[in-house]
Amino acid sequence: MHEIELPLKVIIGMDVLKRLPSLIKKLNLGNDLLVLTGPHVYEIIGKDVISLLVDSHYEVQYQIVRTSTLNEVRQIEEIVKEIKPSIMIAVGGGKVIDVTKYTSYLTHIPFVSVPTAASHDGIASPVASIKLDDGRPGSFFTKPPIMVVADVSVISKAPKRLTASGCGDVIGKITAVRDARLARVIKGEYVGDYALSLALMSAKLVMRNASLIAKGSPEGIRVLLEALISCGTAMAIAGSSKPCSGSEHLFSHALDLIAPRPALHGEQVGVGTIMMSYLHGLKWKRIRGFLKQVGAPINAKELGIEPEYIIRALTIAHKMRKRYTILGESGLTWKAAEALARETEVIE
């Protein structure tokens, strides 16, 4: 038995950010707000959100989030304990939402997710990705936001690279679901079919709407947002990130650890999905074609990562988390990893 916690409200649409003050009021949790945002996002929209809330007679303080690390979480946690806000509001991308999410969990202060890009599946999920003190990637199962306010008009203006990254994160569910089902057969690990089906449906929906997403149209962005939020729901229902994070994510985590300049999370997951779908015997060329269509990287060169790091990441990916995947318990040898990367044209 596990308890399923989901956001009370999810609002997606054009210009819905204007409704944020009234939506917060309906939560009936208080008027003292702490807005967390990134340095770049603050200049573009964060300060406008703060002004909107101040004009609506909320007591607002704000804090800039610069990294998604445990140290950053500790600093924000101390600030939260000192000022005791009623609600925290995360305005930004993955780093901001993840830090807010974990801090919310530690301090028992609810938070509202206001994504400014459709670049990741953490928008509504209970999982926070935080870098540990030793530099390794950490994944914490916390609680989802109490509310999500996703303004399509704002998110449509985000750099196309971020949207393409979101596509890479969603397409990774194809191999993540395969990995979860494999672990169920080999290791007896249980993940419910409903959660797996929801994650897989999200990936298929995004693939079917590739042309709309590639154009950056509001319709395409809305489809991608709904898919990313559905992935968060799948994780909440499963009580773990397994429906949405498999061997493709392990590969990305390995790159984060060893590459001098890692690419965006979703970009790495997308390339990882190409290779892991090959191992699963899936139509990897179709996945590569989708990623290319939406403008996401499909090889090491486009990721800006040297081939040797791709190969090394493949050989250590199985060690990133205690999670059984197509990589098995002993992982890939250097020779097998190099052959995989070359066969899928990730390296030349």
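^ that was protein a. below is b, sequence first then the tokens
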Amino acid sequence: RSHVGTSKPVFWSCLRKLWRDLVRAQLTFWDGDDDDQASTETLKHQNLRNFCKSLARLTRNLVAGVSINQTHAFENEPDIRRLLHYYTSWTAMEDHDDLVVARILSQTMSNLITENEPLMQVLWDTYMNLPEDQVVLVRLLQSSDGKSLVPAVMLIRNCIQGSRTRARLLVHATAGSRLCVCLLDKMAKTYEAEEGSEEARAFDLGYAIFSRLMEAGLVPELYSKLSIKDEIVTPHQTVLLKLIDSYLQSTPLTPKDPTTTKILVKLSQMLGTCFFSMSSYSQRAIRRSLGSPSSEHFSPVINLPSDMILPPAELDVMLPKVCEALVLVSQCIVTVTLDAEKETFNHGTPSASLQNIRAFFNELRFENHSLAESLIELLRLLDRFLPRINFGKPVQNSGSDGPGTTPLSNASDTGFFYLKRDLVRLLGILCHEQKAVQDRVRQCGGIEVVMNLCVIDERNPYLREHAIFALHNLLKGNPENQAIVQEIRPTGQWDENGVLKDNVSAVRK
């Protein structure tokens, strides 16, 4: 390849002419005489398609890993892009033979710039400033063909891998934001792709792209760009939260240096804002469903009498989606908090600029309420709300011998999985050896709420264990909280295994 590129300079001018003539012939194909026979037209199209495939394959192989050849061939990029635009139209992507050409053209485009920094910058600047309908990468990402998808995702990954400037363009440019949306859509669809398939490979490359955005500290900005007016959380934001959660689980983001600390602070601010907004939305939606007055904020523990067992007054269809996202946010906060605590424990002293992440979350306020107080109020409402939604099983309300609520056949409980468990787990972490937090929890009736969660719940595996752990942390070194527990007696029934059944409430003596 290197020999061909350097020994015969005239080769590149001939290649340039071939690409130029091919584009002219292909894009003016339908401008001929209307009286031409259909069979002749079909034959001409097949010939052009075969020629395009051969020329793209030749160019792709010539430029692979040879920078001088890439530089010579890059002048054909506009023509390759125009042909790729043609072969990624909706009608072309439905034709198998046209789809093969699109694959090879996309591979050629990717090979043109691989490991060539100057060309990457030129191409990326060009693509990020194109009108949306001209960005062929968007069309490729929308394709159902894995072999066309991989080169497109690889091109994006290669362009942003070594450059924060290009990564920033991916988030902030209009074309870049559109690419992110398409990537998130595709990753949601290919998450369960068979291992070793092209779709699975595309997913892994997409994950590498968003990992790079995490490392560059651009995820909070991307999350904001994905928002839609009057929607508390969008499907794309939920997918992004899943990727953030996965990244944090596999790659601890601890404040080891000023850059990482800055990234962690921005991410923590985003997570805190998300938690408050989603928690507040959920509380309002649940109150409307329960028919509770909006002024019922941070009230003491409430025992619902049997004569109040009613169907939901209003069911917010967005609530399960918001709760699903809230689970992810809670898990992310737990992960970054525990990672920071681990780093502090291992090195003896916390980061000078952060002190520690747990203190950061404990100091956050929304409408003069702390994160722990917002969490407690949501748990209190969830404890009343979830039993009111019957997912095919009889539900008995606390203190009631009557039947449960009317089944809601069109409701889905998927969004509520793990919600109570992760909220009470987060509470246990936030209040650990933090007397100020313990006191605020007591003052808003949180002790009783946590005690009522010491039960088995099939939607919340290990809820009881996490609730007991949180209760331990609330009582440790806090006589006032311990006194509250001493004043409370449980009412309910213990089974033969020593498990307190779900029909239980806590009341003061």
